[in-house]
Amino acid sequence: MHKPIYTISKIAEILNADAKFVDEQNVIEYLVIDSRSVLVPENSLFFALSSHRDGHEFIKDAYDKEIRSFVITDKKYINQYPNCNFLLVADALKALQKLALYHRNQFNLKTIGITGSNGKTIVKEWLYQLLAADFNIIRSPKSYNSQIGVPLSVWQIDVDHNLGIFEAGISAANEMESIEEIIKPEIGILTNIGEAHAEGFSSKRDKIAEKLKLFAGTDLFIYSPEYVDEVNFKDLPGKKKFTWSSKQGADLRIIAVEPIEGNCYLRAIYQDREIECMLPFKDKASIENGMICWATLLAFGYTPEQADLRLEKLSHVSMRLELKNGINQCSIIDDSYSADISSLAIALDFLNQQNQHPKKTVILSELFETGKDDLDLYNEIADLLTQKKVSRLIGIGPKIDKYAELFKFETQFFADTNAFIDAFPGMQFNQETILVKGARRFEFGRISKLLTQKIHDTVLEIDLNAMVGNLQFYRSKINPGVKIMAMVKAFSYGSGSFEIANLLQFHKVDYLAVAYADEGIALRKAGITLPIMVMSPEESAFEAIVKHNLEPEIYSIEILNSFLNALSDYDFNYPIHLKIDSGMHRLGFDQPEIEELSILLKDNQRLKVQSIFSHLVASGEAEHDGFTQQQIEKFKLLSSELVKVLGYKPLLHIANTSGISRWADGQLDMVRLGIGLYGFDAALQNNRGLQTVMVLKTTVSQVKILDAGETVGYSRRGVMPNGGKIATVKIGYADGYNRAFGNGVGKMLINGKLVPTIGSICMDMTMLDITGIDVKAGDEAIVFDKEHTIMQLAEEINTIPYEILTNISQRVKRVYFYE
Hints:
By secondary structure, this protein is an alpha/beta fold. The chain has a nine-stranded mixed beta sheet. Strands 21, 30, 33, 34, 35, 36, 37 and 38 form an eight-stranded mixed beta sheet that branches. The chain has an eight-stranded parallel beta sheet with strand order 28-27-26-25-24-23-22-29. Helix 4 runs parallel beside helix 7 and helix 21 packs parallel to helix 22. Helices cover 28% and strands 23% of the residues.
């Protein structure tokens, strides 16, 4: 099937909306509910949803971001923006859900639906890790599980997906039916049931019953009996059921949970025999989520041995609990994502695992949405804290102090977060473990920031979600069946090695390409199994190339003969890639060499040509379009001559990143995606549609005030005729910050202000002119991010983003974020 195309007029028909068009053929690809999050405005449809604020208030912001198509419920805006498409509906949220439902119905997609009180997102992300080897998976981004989040998740289903994993959350009765209709899960998974959102239901039974509506049409229901003990078995959904439990009889009956050196060893009875698995975690929440994933793999038909192999390779998903180094030798557990009794109990278990400090402090906000009487609630909390041997409670909120007498240990109370922050300088925190646990409305992130020890290292942050988003952006541009070769040469453009390759392998690119054999060997040793092309193979590395199953680029008769000589008598059909010079004049076979090449390849059983390719010189520059077209035609001609000789059809590829964007007729059998993965494409104005992947940041070491006429740095190149203030930051040319950025050429962001360099760039440090700006030691300095971009840095020193990225030293710490 082909990917559905939605024009604004088609969407009006789907929604049965009163429409006013200026361009009824405008194609919509993106649904937008937040005017701050706009990728491709010309293909975006903004829904004016009303929740905490009226979405119509943000129409102007969306319009200023160049969106020209809107779904509204108030017709007065139609005349205010006469050059826009407007769809007038009775309910914008229902319209969003209706559109997602229509889209969902275009696909015959196996779907997993997940609901519960805790663990939904972690289970979803772990199932993605566990099943991605066998399925092309679409899943809810982050924790998109609400009445709004589910439609936005489902809208991302594409023709290539054959499994969907969606989570669903509800806070009141009669919410789940619309979500179930959109997701249509064939497999249902129920996670932990706790007190969150209990105030929206008359009883726990009613809350469970509402959640179970998600599984009304499921073929398979996976659950733990203790979470549905208030529901009659005959009322449980699912044509088939698979149970797991550590407390009672079940299909998967866990009989032992043993921590081993940071891991957890599980034994269970399954199909009348004992089985085992290892989880690379030891906290209670992860163990329970791991049990759910174990049950799911077995219910899917994986053998216990297969399940064990996959589960032990699970990687951590940073969601709610995060352990950080704190001030005064403290350890900080940041759990400011949510607050309810169940998650508090789990967080306290995690707190008790920390044995580095005998004193344990809990900073706790008032708990809401528990459905309990306040006295009963705080009695339960007091008992829980006592049971977990908490040393001190700091309670924050207008009511928690009324129950102070319930807590039989050291306590302190504040009316709100601001009151705590005001008192913080006089408070004592020293060599203790501190759990920061609060409801979102209390903004406990501010408290965590006060308590957390600042890290003064220079760090390159890589957003893997953004990289995946960019990969999907280019996938949307290529024709069905066209393969993707991802370029990971030069330490993946400075961003990493196996970390990036693992991500790309996980998301099923078809090929990787490196510059030299040692890069490919490192990837093989890191467990990368994708085909890898080596673009600059050296004769001395041929033996290692064959040993590690790498595929060399062959660009001359001499290299071809050398490689043939390196092959053993037992090597047949060894994969190679032929490079044609269509105009770059760097490497490759020229037209006069094609005949000699053909003779060597004809009937040669030692080699198999996996691909024939060439490289576009200026695919992103319109002024060279004539030459680009000549390159494509020349490549097609020369490659066709080789195909005739070979007697089989290798993959043909010539399009690079900009070629994908601008030259659809150059896509052929495969495209090579390079710098576009990292958010840069010369063919896209301002890289429109791409996400920023990398942020380079450092910290201020010292601030100095200088008198008039004083100089800064080596050779006194930095001059301050009127005096002023400078900051020294921990980055220099040894980190990859080019000396050309010195003397005011380069700029960094500190506290939201762009400040210039002053003096020469040193090996390990750089000085910045911060005159007139409030800056102190320890403040963060942004070298580049999505606001102060690498493109701007490149322009400042007359170079290209490639050079900026690849020059970042490997001594700079790489930190990878994946939500």
